[in-house]
Amino acid sequence: MAGFKLSITWIAFVHAILVSSMVSTGRPGHGLVGYGISMYNPQCAYACRDVLSTSMLNCSEPMDMSGGMGMMDMGMGAETSPECYATDDAFLSTLAYCMATHCQKVAVWKLERYWNRNVAGTQPNQPIPKATYQQTVANITTKPTDTLVAGEDLNKTMIVSDEDHQASYNAQSVFEEMERNHETYGCVSTWSLKVAELG
């Protein structure tokens, strides 16, 4: 029995070390995914931004391509800063148009909250967009006609295709479900170890 208790203590120790080493660089949240934290809310807006995230903006900075395999061949030829996302007209108007198209059932205040917190990224101290979501939508005076191909340069207001949006939405749904399951099984494992230690 002493060997069993030692192994449970060892497992609990290793688990504590692993959990403490997982440090997030994003904004702090309270709870666990599925238990107080929703990863993508509103999911339609996150899906819009996800589709746009692979496109190079006018203010994106080309990455240093010296040596080794060319990053341009892998679709990773530029880095976009939070300041760039917060100020680039084509990015902001395309994101706003996508959200207006795909998030029609979401309250405007939720879209504004998403806009202020997530357009530039997810870091704690990042710039807010140069205009609100509603202002950006109001500034779109003509309906865009060109459809964005993920990964291509974004230099004007464009349409995010229903297929690209749905693919991103579905991927986020699956990912969040997997994370919710990880949290559930992690809690069960932790409580099982605690109960075994007491028993």
Regions with pLDDT < 50 over 5+ consecutive residues?
Answer: 1-6, 17-27, 67-75
- What structural category arises from helix and sheet content? mainly alpha
What is the percentage of strand-forming residues?
Answer: under 5%
Largest sheet, in brief, is: 2 strands, parallel
Count of DSSP-assigned helices? 7
Strand order of the largest sheet: 1-2
The gyration radius over C-alpha positions equals: 21 Å
Instruction: Tell me the span between the first and last alpha carbons.
Output: 11 Å
Would you kindly provide a written description of the structure presented here, covering whatever features stand out?
- It is a single chain.
- This protein is mostly helical and 199 residues long.
- It is built from 7 helices and 4 strands; from the N terminus they run αββαββααααα.
- It has helices spanning 2-20, 43-52, 82-87, 89-102, 108-118, 133-138, 162-198, and strands spanning 32-33, 36-37, 61-62, 78-79.
- It has a two-stranded parallel ribbon.
- α1 (2-20) runs antiparallel to α7 (162-198), α2 runs antiparallel to α4 and α2 packs across α7.
- The chain is elongated, with a radius of gyration of 21 Å.
- The N and C termini lie close together (11 Å).
- Mean pLDDT is 77; it is low at 1-6, 17-27 and 67-75.
Features:
199 residues; mainly alpha; two-stranded parallel ribbon
SSE blueprint:
Blueprint (H helix, E strand, L loop, with lengths): L1 H19 L11 E2 L2 E2 L5 H10 L8 E2 L15 E2 L2 H6 L1 H14 L5 H11 L14 H6 L23 H37 L1
Parallel strand pairs: 1-2
Antiparallel strand pairs: 3-4
Helix pairs in contact: 1-7, 2-4, 2-7
